[in-house]
Amino acid sequence: MKRWTTILTAFILTLTTALAVAAFTAHGDTWRSIAAYNAFADGKVIDLTENNLVDELSQLPLSVRLSKVNLNQSILSVDLKIGEESYQPSVLYLNMAELIRFSFERTSNVSQLLIRLVAEDKWVGTKHLLLASDVRRGEWPPSALDDLENLGDHPLSDELRQYFRLTVTSLWKNRFE
Hints:
Elements: H1 2-25, H2 29-40, H3 53-58, E1 65-72, E2 75-82, H4 89-105, E3 112-121, E4 126-136, H5 142-149, H6 158-163, E5 166-168, H7 170-176
Parallel strand pairs: 2-3
Antiparallel strand pairs: 1-2, 3-4, 4-5
């Protein structure tokens, strides 16, 4: 009898743990990916090169797809493609913050990061620029990155626009502001 009680207890604990893990991961891929990335990131600073560019960027927990990346000396250019999916500004800000954090905290040789958010219309085959950013190492306070991450769905402040050299198009304003 004691043996069956032990087996039943182990089974219930296993089932409860599995359900708890499933409940935590149901809060969204972005949160789960960022938490997993930060938990397992070794904090090692790397030199980003053409040889490791794809490997390093593919490990980032981005919920928006990478469309185009380029490394030209110390300038990293990244295009994020927004397709048919409906994104809230908060998700886009978190993706931008993740790219900024990676570029300036995890690499030693990136001095400038160019980010473009591009909407793609599959029906017509056209692309439309929504937002562009020119972020430079050391030209913004550390609190600015936290402010961007915590902005939620609010419009970009003038300070953030200045720190990260953000430019938004009329299409962005019509959709998100």
